[in-house]
Amino acid sequence: MTLKSFTFNPFSTNCYIVESDGEAVIVDPSCMTKQEISAVVDYISQNGFEIRHLLLTHGHIDHIFGCNALSEAYQLEWRIHVDDAPLLENAPLQAEMFGIPLDTPNSPGAALADGDQISFGRMKLDVLHTPGHSPGSVSFSNQKENYVIAGDVLFRGSIGRTDLWKGSLPVLMQSIFQKIVPLGDDVSVYSGHGPETTVGIEVETNPFLTGSGDFGL
Description:
Elements: E1 2-8, E2 13-20, E3 23-27, H1 34-47, E4 50-55, H2 67-74, E5 78-79, H3 85-89, H4 91-97, E6 117-120, E7 123-129, E8 138-142, E9 147-151, E10 154-155, E11 158-159, H5 169-180, E12 188-191, E13 197-198, H6 199-205, H7 207-210
Parallel strand pairs: 3-4, 4-5, 9-12
Antiparallel strand pairs: 1-2, 2-3, 6-7, 7-8, 8-9, 10-11, 12-13
């Protein structure tokens, strides 16, 4: 198993490629420019990976810049939770808020739902519905390899913002404590922004989990 991360676009958003036995998934196409898109495509080509799934943790613009380019490159549809589908449909409006041009992503494929399993190679990712940052945010948990790709739910030392469309701080905290924390202290957390951390480190030191954070988001 290999897990490769790239950090792209002005928002410094992470894109992940996870591989098992030559088959791979792409999580969050944050690649915005031709050079960033080429970095992803070249990495996959150089390693001979077969892309089996295109997955979105959620639909905010910094995570979806490369949707159309990679969908066309691999002839696959992106999968997203149904509650975040409106974010894809209104991607140009999202982008307009930041003064960034963005075409509407192609229509998504089969919706992701809590409890789904994504299979590739000898690997399975469990889909966890973890709303709060957005209504349809999901995380992808790999129990065998002890990691979770958590999107913008949990960061090293922080949590996802909740002041965007249908964000909710109470819902986000519920997602963290009911879906992420029970995965175990030694589980690695790969976030949508910033470096890797672990569940245990965040439980012990993250001010939002210890109760010492500024909850006036």
